[in-house]
């Protein structure tokens, strides 16, 4: 019993889960609709099409990832399969990483399917994405999946059952995607002016949705819209070094979140 | 969990306290030509002798491409509390506090927004400049308060004859947008 | 580094004899190509090759009588000249590099003097231009200027013509690393009225065409790129700017304290590199008509502040990050403009009393029960984000953040005070010229199709092999 077994088991379970297919249908459908609305011209750079595409992905993908990911963990608890697994010589780390890898593959397959359909449909219609833009969106989605999946593991670890996981998941999604500017603007109103910018930068690193969104906006060539306060960040991010730095930050995020989950599971396991 | 909250709260409180009590000085910040634009007229600010800046007591810094724009900002934001206010020495571009600088005004002087006011670190260098130019009215910061701040929209081209000449030629460094002298018609090279 | 074919001619190495011959041939080729009337002079020029400094050009000019046509022998000359009487100087194949020092290389100081086809290089930094025009009704035509300071300056020159010329900086002043303070304007007018500036190309200078306190000038069909501002008006009246184009500048047309201008049929694209960039900026502009311009792919298409009594109509503002910023402006009319696929269409504040009518906003979902092509519900512009970022620019990080829309929708209490288009169009009023070149070529569509198919196949494979199949 090792990480690979867990991952394979996870993929199998994932594709038997009707949730995965409903998300697949939903995501594909919305991507296609957006493509149809803007079918008159080719899609590249930072425009309203790519902008609304970014928003759409930010609405759907994190929520989908949070729910599928956390449900998978709570199911282990609720259905008693973890009680069985923990009797095997299986390290908790392997278990968590296996879950992570398996779920990541399931979700990335969903995204790949949706972009595959859009790519083909766009090409047939004679408009659609430029290759670079399509790939950038794919990378964007994969990053969102990887980051939010790490959070989903945390939620699945903390939640006792599916309903709790749903509550936590939706709360986290609302907090990071919808309520984020409102909360920050309200909160930073109490902070001296000179702290606002450093605080914003720091907090942005804590929000996977914003972090990935800004990275993609910069990569789409829209960095200058962020204004004079961020042009040095934008300059760094536009370089190849920026991508490496960004990857490092993402990795740190994933390792930290899944590390905490593994630690909590381990604690739960040793306490029986 | 409670411990963490307490630590966070205490540290936040300490920082707030430190920020609130510290005697703040407002130092001039350098001009960044790639991003700085005038808070009034939207023009990119050149890192030259005409750039000015002020910092409010809450720490917001506003930069201007011409002292005239800074004046307009102050008129528009009369309620703002200004912590530091700087202009630059015409010769070495050193930042000098607004009220310690010496100023020279002449409608013919070229500046980015054509307010025609140059700033100097002391009276002596301002006087030397007026002597060299053969024109220009010496002013202090207090005088600027009653200055009428007219922009030289320069219809004077009409009334100055071709023969009217200044001898500054092309040597004068007026870095701004336009040329060396107010009257190039008599340029002698 | 070489931008534009015609500019190649003055980029050759001047120290090399062979290079000089080649260069001369190239210059001639370019001149004959761009100046139909020049071929006659080119023949005579080629017949009399001249060594550097062998004869002073100034002597030839001094020897000519007013009203004469003088053809200068081709070659490179390290001298500065002054044309102080009414001569028509043909200088195809002539490269003038000045006598060193910060002084104009060419001065045109006589009314009605003309200079054609000369290459002028000013390597000295400073405030003196490569070409100085200080008399009325001067004509310069087909000049190729490379300058470490200004290109062409007009000082109290009225009724002059600057046509078909190219202005570029020395190589070290090109590119991102060059300091703005070291750069100077391409064509620079001060107190000069009624001039014609036509079909010039300015690249990599400070401001491409700068006009200060200069009135009734016509700026037609010029191309400006990689400069700070393409055309920069300060305190000008009655300027006509027509059919100019530009890209990669900070701002295409910068109109500041301008009255009675006409800005028509200009094209400015891809001005989004700088955090302050835009297609056109109008600050304190009055009684001006801005029509038929195309502003695509800029950071901000139209930026309008503190302006009154102007008309913006039939402009195509598309694929910008922000379509239009309208701030503290009153009594303007914006009509029949087209705003398509801008990330954010408008940021308007303090501009209630303008007449906005019949514009097309593609992000706006109108309602047209009467079927007249005009929406019955107005398009109102929420100033929330504009106000937020004006107070604290750091909040610009929330630009188009999904949560920002949510937050904006919470602040609609004072909607009556907002700028609005009372009768927005359901369909655009004019066909876009912009969308034609943004259409994908078949190959790029095929590329995407193949990539899409590959993704699809991969996804299906994973689903069937790892998910569905019994193992």
Explain this structure to me?
Chain A contains twelve helices and no strands. In chain A, helix 7 crosses helix 8. With 272 residues, chain A is an all-alpha fold. Chain B is 26% helix and 16% strand. Chain B contains five helices and seven strands, in the order H-E-E-H-E-E-E-E-H-E-H-H. Chain B has helices at 2-21, 67-76, 123-133, 141-145, 156-159, and strands spanning 52-56, 61-64, 82-88, 95-97, 102-105, 117-120, 137-139. In chain B, the strands form two sheets. A four-stranded antiparallel beta sheet of chain B has the order 2-1-3-4. In chain B, strands 6-5-7 form a three-stranded antiparallel beta sheet. In chain B, strand 1 and strand 2 (61-64) form a beta hairpin. Chain C has 471 residues and is α/β, with parallel strands linked by helices. Chain C contains seven helices and 39 strands. Mean pLDDT of chain C is 86; it is low at 1-54 and 433-440. Chains in contact: A-B, A-C, B-C. Chains A and C meet through helix 1, helix 3, helix 5, helix 6 and helix 8 of A and helix 5 and helix 7 of C.
Order of helices and strands of chain B: HEEHEEEEHEHH
Q: Provide the helix percentage of chain B.
A: 25-40%
Biggest β-sheet of chain B: count, sense, barrel? 4 strands, antiparallel
The proportion of residues in beta strands of chain A is under 5%
Got a strand count of chain A? 0
Q: What structural class do you assign from the helix and strand content of chain B?
A: alpha+beta
What is the number of E strands of chain B? 7
Q: What coarse outline of chain B follows from CA principal-axis ratios?
A: elongated
**Gap from first CA to last CA of chain B:** 80 Å
* Count of runs of 4 or more consecutive helical residues of chain A: 12
Largest interface: A-C, 73 and 63 residues
Mean pLDDT of chain A: 90
Mind telling me the C-alpha Rg of chain A?
20 Å
Order of helices and strands of chain A: HHHHHHHHHHHH
Residue windows where pLDDT falls under 50 for at least 5 positions of chain A: none
Rounded average pLDDT of chain B: 78
Helix content of chain A: over 70%
